[in-house]
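Subject: Protein record for review, amino acid sequence with backbone structure tokens
Why sent: The fold of this protein is of interest and is recorded here as tokens.
Enclosed: The protein record, placed directly beneath this head.
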Amino acid sequence: MNGTLIGNTLRGLVYTLRPGNLFYILLTAALIVVAGTLYLGDLTTYLLARAETDTFTWIPPTPRIWGILAVIFLLFVAKTLDNAARICASHKNASFLPLSEVTVGDLLLYLIGLLLLAILLGAAPFICYNLDIGNNITSYLNRACALIACLLLPALPLSYLNERNASTMLDFPSLATAIGSIGILRYLILLILISGATAGVGYAIAHFWQQHLAGQLPAIMDSIAASGYDYSKIPLHYYQHAAIIAALACWLITYIYSAAAWTYPREDEEDNNEPAMSLHERTRLAIASGHPATTEPPSDNAPQEAPVPATESSPSRLRRAIAAARAAHKTAPPGKQEPQLTDPDAPPPLLRDIGLSNAADKTVPADKQEPQLTPPDAPPRLLRGQKTNTAPATDKNEPHLIPPELELLKEADVTRMRLEEQQTFARVLAEADEHFKHGQIDTGLALLAPYTDADHDPAVYFPAYQRRYALQPQDTLLHRLMVAAARGSAHCYDLIQPELNRINPVELPADIIRPLAQQAAKQQQYLTVLALTRNFAKNHPEHPHLADNYYLAALALAHSGQTDKALPILQQLLARYPDHPHSDLFRRATAQLQDGQTP
């Protein structure tokens, strides 16, 4: 949901005052003051050399000033893009990191998109100016291009975040889709509000400049020359006035993008009348240590709803915690989408830009379950060798057979733990849960840290990983969980499954995509299959799993009702890989689709 206009305006205002944003506003303001002061020193040198002490002119900035300005620009672009991604992901607080919800690669692509847009908008005025067509025409073109840039400004981050592709910032349909997701009327009102804020703050800056700074510049330059360019000798009131002006300008830029981002689609307002969950409630939900009161877990054959797609939002901390709790109770995240592919006739078919709308997953009869490929080079499953002093095996379907002190280890692989180690691990989990219940998050996470390092297998110590990942998601934890899921850990797979729908598959090791896609297909999570195999041929054109992954993608399309796109993929697989070890599977699935059956 997008919220109300008044609510979004207030949220954008409050969001700029979050500590994470105030830090960068003050930091960039300080850098602007430093750059401006150094510029005054360079200008003083220039005027003294020309003996023009009674005039004021402008000179090009020196390389060191350009360097500071480049740092300021990068900080602004990184922080505004990250803020937009965090707001879309329902984060209420700004991060102290310049990049927390987006990657360096995302930032580079976004900068490329901004550069291409600037070149596109500046091409016409540049050509007219150099051809000396006419000052009036050039002036009109400059104003028109500036107006277009201002009109598109609020939609650019959303257009990019929807697909993480620089070309979407130049693509009219993508920009129109971004504006449409906000709402035409809401977008126009947003532009009016931004214009009003810009006019108000701009007037305040201009007034403050004229009243307190403009008339002092000659005296400041004389002070710089008299002190031998000792900038600490400049009067303090100069720095105070310059800092206020710079801070106002930085706050305005942050507010414009924050107010725009609060109108982007997000899912944090499913019920505006519900009070916000307390830290205690979020922690209890995240650790998922209790049992459902009335609802029983769905059966294996129950239809599952599709997860939220990557094009709508990136994960939030709270939604990660909710996903962890759902994984503990074997429920699936809500949502209904329809997977789509690009032109199926493209050789080879690339699964990219999955658009989603109105598709419902359906239950697959037992006799039509798709065959699972056995990866010949997949990592071996966890060795479950017997050790001395191990605990006796217990039936997890009968909770009364599990000792009370080991209740928290139901989802751990205790076959590789001695009884003493199990008891110690259970006590640590219980102690961490107790800290979580009292809001002592850092203390509880510190207890779990020794069990979630690189030396501890997530499949074995899953309860510790589940709690820590829900409250402190990190890329290193996610990678270990993915590897464990690829090796066959169902618990690890269930925990990270929502993330698999959002992550860019190019960031995954190529070898784990097939086993993860097989697990997704086994659980009838066909959107996850498509998300994992998307662009595999483009990213790994020579990988031995290429045919298997597209076979899984074709089956996912077929089970999603898109037989017209699944059949060409299978036919191309047969044509390109006639001697593949699984060509019989490809041929059988093709024949079934041609006969109107679902493989």
About this structure: Confidence is low (pLDDT under 50) at residues 267-402. The chain has 23 helices and no strands. The longest helix spans residues 19-49.
